[in-house]
């Protein structure tokens, strides 16, 4: 027996559902950042650039991440609308807050690079899926990736993976090659999760 969903009038998420999803998605992403830091790795997208900048300058990840995302809000507003922009701004602000608070509540002493990469990739993928399904992102490349998928059908995961390749090429200047390769494996897990699961031909999001 086949069950069909009527996609002509999708039910919109409630305010509480959106707020809870932002909390869950950003909490997962903050945990992923801790996993990466505990294993001495980086990630892709704006979060990856933020980690590179944080390692290089000693500034906190949360502050750098928030500042680097500011220019992308105009693109979000013009291409994705006010609702998406507000949700994305809230998600970025929450992640900034969580990355400042969470290290004081838990401590990850050490992870092997392989375990850190794979676990962070799975956790990041789950966190981003939660945010995407509720019409939000973590800014930066995520905005462009979602726009290109909705407008042209180019999968968001592949767009992000292309950008990540550039981030990791830059990382070769700051980190040993083996560290960058482990980090790239984690980023690949994230983007495969997104490409496989954030698909309008299979799933309906409101």
UniProtKB/TrEMBL annotation:
The chain crosses the membrane at residues 20-43, 55-78, 114-147, 167-194. Keywords: Cell membrane, Membrane, Transmembrane, Transmembrane helix. It is found in: Cell membrane. Pfam families: YitT_membrane. It comes from the Bacteria. Its main location: membrane. InterPro entries: UPF0750_membrane, YitT. This is YitT family protein. It comes from Pseudoruegeria aquimaris.
């Amino acid at each position: 027996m086949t069950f069909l969903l009527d996609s002509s009038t999708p039910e919109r998420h409630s305010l509480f559902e959106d707020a809870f999803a932002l909390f869950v998605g950003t909490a997962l992403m903050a945990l992923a950042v801790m996993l990466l830091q505990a294993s001495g790795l980086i990630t892709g997208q704006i979060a990856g650039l933020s980690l590179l900048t944080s390692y290089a300058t000693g500034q906190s990840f949360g502050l750098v991440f928030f500042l680097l995302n500011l220019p992308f809000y105009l693109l979000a507003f013009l291409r994705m609308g006010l609702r998406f922009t507000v949700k994305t701004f809230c998600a970025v602000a929450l992640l900034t807050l969580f990355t400042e608070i969470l290290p004081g509540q838990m401590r990850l002493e050490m992870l092997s690079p392989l375990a850190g990469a794979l676990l962070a990739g799975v956790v990041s993928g789950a966190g981003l899926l939660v945010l995407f399904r509720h019409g939000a992102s973590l800014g930066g490349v995520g905005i462009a990736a979602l726009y290109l998928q909705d407008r042209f059908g180019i999968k968001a995961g592949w767009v992000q993976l292309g950008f990540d390749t550039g981030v990791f090429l830059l990382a070769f200047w700051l980190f040993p090659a083996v560290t960058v390769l482990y980090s790239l494996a984690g980023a690949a897990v994230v983007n495969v999760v997104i490409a496989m699961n954030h698909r309008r031909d299979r799933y309906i999001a409101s």
